[in-house]
Amino acid sequence: MRRIGVDTGGTFTDCVLVDDEAGLLMVEKVPSQPASPDAAILTGMMRLIERAGLKPADVDAVMHGTTIATNVVIQETYAPAGVLATSGCRDVIEIGTQQRPQPYNLLHPPKPVLAPRNRRVEVRGRIAADGAEVEPLDEDAARVAIRELIAQGAASIAVTGLFSFVNPAHERRLAELVREETNDAYCIASSDVSREPREYPRFAATVVNAALAPLLDPYVRRLQQRLADSGFSAELYIIQSSGGLATALRSMGERAHNLVLSGPAAGIVGGVVTAAASGLRNLVTLDVGGTSADIGLVADGEPRLRFDMALPNGLPLHVANLEIETIGAGGGSIAWVDAGGALRVGPQSAGARPGPVCFGLGGAEPTVTDAQVVLRRLNPAGLLGGGLKLDRDKACEAVGVLAQRLGLGLEQAALGIVAVMEANMAGAILRSAARHGDNLREFTLVGAGGAGGLSAVALAATLQIPRVLIPPHPGLFSAAGLLSAELRHDLSSPLMIDPDDPDVAAITSVQSELEDRALRDLATDRIPAERRRCDHALDLRYFGQEYAVTVPTAPGERFAEVVRRFHEIHEKTYGHSAPGTRAEITAARIVGRSVADGRALPRATQTDSGSEGRRSVWFEETGGYADTPVVKRFSLRPGDSVAGPAIIEQIDTTTVVPPGWAAVVDERDCMIIEEVRP
């Protein structure tokens, strides 16, 4: 089977081709084109198949990770959405929960609302908590309301109704009316986004979907069409926020909001697969690109999954997602001085165009990459095997202007830029670890992304993480992770059952229905029967709580055992538990997944030989420039070691091994870097 993984970042688009039969792994990295991401994807894919001597029709599958939704959420460039609500629900998304992130701030700003009040309309109709109709739907008023929303500029309409997760009849009829009254307005009902209680998160997720789908769906369709026009007949898969793949068809419409963490999720999947081959199960994954750094934690071989997330503007999004912390810290992050005279780095980025000053493409503000060039940690001949030239004089000039404002020397200012960015990363890692009380001394830091290897060891030293793992192709880590991901369907259904006196028949019925749906979806996705699997879970909470804890279960498992594990998970998550206190089951969950076929990714192709030579590199530990060996990554074979200070270069990244640390290549071509003990 021949597969291509494509990860589109803010600065570069990474492509990996795997030919399982030939045991071939090839990589390609091209500049991203933010105005036309599909153009960069086609460029990278065509270069790969040409180098491999293949035709587009020879490729069996294309796996894609996209940051389109991520960027829309961060930049708040949503499509204009309207809300069509039933009785009493017009203002739910604005009222929210009344929780205040800053409870003592008397001038606390209001939470953002994606659909302002002039794009929210309410019509008569109401469903009771038991699913019975309390008030019939006023269809004539609904038609007038739909035309009013379109006149107000709504490009999409979110339909919201109380207790629609029990009985979606009103929402579905309103959606039909929208389709009758409009020709091209996108419409989504909250019962199609989530079948769970708590109306504010459900309504908010629906509006987010309505504001994303008009932007995402055309991109996915355009990419499919361009692939077909170029001769590719392969199925297109897109990775979801949960770390699982879905077909392009299942990534659009009512599932568009599942792509908010599409790009970052692939990096965690890649970390799990890569580190497992090296016998490591507790990981901090650090994927540093040109624009951002994505941080995730893996405990005992499993990435942490949650079913709620908060968007940068504070809106809740009810969707299965890996716990990922994304910050604006990357190679293109711009260094600046704030009003108080302090050095700051990011979150603004120079991006792919114009990029860092040293790229010579018009950038004028100093970036982290410019600082690394000043310190001579990056090859002065250029990046991407010389395909991207670097101008050190321009980098020195840009950093020098900042150094004058700070009253520092050139190298001290460059070192300060790098240190501030690394401090931002360290803070994000500590926040991620603190959520679950993780002891970072028991973890391994996986340095990935085009800029991850430059800072990984310094971060490990700061955080007392004992070892660093650098994968064979860290700059294409997410693209490689795509090739290891499984197809995944997350389904849930509400319950309200006392586990001390459970209605076993009701729970079994709901779980069986969900499992049948998941298996049908996998069959539709053409997954062979022997590779279909369903995992079960129940949501439990203490009576009177609002939020639940997800507890993995096995079919037919005793409920007393489920409750015992609930107390354990609650203790670990929140720092306390209350055994003996009444609990309740609030939802059943099923994850339908495709079991991996057991084929590991081929070994990295080793083409380098010998050493690049030596150059003077600035290290904080030496207090100045030190004569440093520069080693080509794939001149190293399993068992070879490199003592710091050293610079290890390859086409997609550069790894810095500072004094006092040493790197050893393991049997899977991963570099394990540890501090040298006296």
UniProtKB/TrEMBL annotation:
Q: Which domain of life is it from?
A: Bacteria
Record-linked InterPro entries: ACX-like_C, ATPase_NBD, Hydant_A_N, Hydantoinase_A, Oxoprolinase-like
Which residues does the UniProt record annotate as the domain Hydantoinase/oxoprolinase N-terminal?
A: 3-181
Q: The Hydantoinase A/oxoprolinase domain covers which part of the protein?
A: 202-490
Q: Which Pfam families match?
A: Hydant_A_C, Hydant_A_N, Hydantoinase_A
Q: Annotated Gene Ontology MF terms?
A: 5-oxoprolinase (ATP-hydrolyzing) activity
Q: Which residues form the Acetophenone carboxylase-like C-terminal domain?
A: 505-669
Gene Ontology cellular component annotations, sorted alphabetically? cytosol
What GO terms in the biological process aspect are recorded for it? glutathione metabolic process
PANTHER family, A to Z: 5-OXOPROLINASE RELATED, HYPOTHETICAL 5-OXOPROLINASE (EUROFUNG)-RELATED
Question: Under which name does UniProt file this protein?
Answer: Hydantoinase/oxoprolinase family protein
Q: Which organism is it from?
A: Hansschlegelia quercus
